[in-house]
Amino acid sequence: MATNRSPSSAGSSATSGRGLEEERSSGSPVPYREGPLQYHPAVHCDFGQKAARWISWSRNNPGRRYLTCMRRRVSSFASCGLLPQFGFGLPAAWFCSDFVGGGCGFWEWYECDTTTTFLKQLQVDLRDKVWRLSKEIEDLIAATSAARTHVEQMLVQREQSEKKMSAQVLEWGRLLMEKDAQVAAVVDRSKKLEKERVVLRSIILACICVVIGMLIK
Ligand SMILES: [Zn+2]
Fold first, then answer.
1. CB distance 87 to 73 below 8 Å
2. Dist CA 20 CA 169 (whole Å)
3. Low complexity bias: where (predicted)?
4. Which residues contact 5 (CB under 8 A, 6 or more apart)?
5. Ligand 1 centre and the CA of 103: distance in Å?
6. Which residue of 86, 96, 123, 159 has the lowest C-beta tally within 10 Å?
7. For the segment 110-140, what is each residue's pLDDT rounded down to a tens digit?
8. H helices then E strands: how many in the chain?
9. Is residue 109 exposed (0-12), middle (13-18) or buried (19+ Cβ within 10 Å)?
10. Strand, helix or coil at 50?
11. Domain boundary among 85, 115, 145
12. Ligand 1: centre distance to CA 124 (Å)
């Protein structure tokens, strides 16, 4: 087991600079097969707590495991909301209350650096590939969600437009019936006036005939 305990030294960028930023921002590219405390023999931190074993995904030490005080690891996230991915079935309170607070600073490599430069670069390339694909998946999920929301909004707008159009059609139908009734009333009135005109002409003609008859006598 490696014992160099300087996380900020050269070659141990798992917890320093770019490597740490990458770990924090992107997480492990693969799920852990074992929990951070599922190893033997146990290594204890400066305060007698079993140290947690993690996998470094830094550019200089990809895939290399290291030990750190669990409190130090947990406190580095500064948020219990990010902890379930490291839960491994352990009670959330174990992370979120008892162990948030800074830890003792214990840190050391779990194993020696025996990887070749080629394999390191290969692991980094695979790591980056997984992170890029994960990001693409997240973007696709976000885009799909946004598209679904947009389609739902369009469907709601379409339904509202159809309801409005139906109401407009009903209103137009009602107005058309009113106009038809008015036209029918005008036609009836016209027929009635025509009949009255005929009757009036007949009366006038009869009167003229009577006057002419009286004049002839
Ligand atoms: Zn400790």
1. no
2. 66
3. 1-18
4. 106, 107, 108
5. 5
6. 159
7. 999 999 999 999 999 999 999 999 999 999 9
8. 4, 3
9. buried
10. strand
11. 115
12. 30
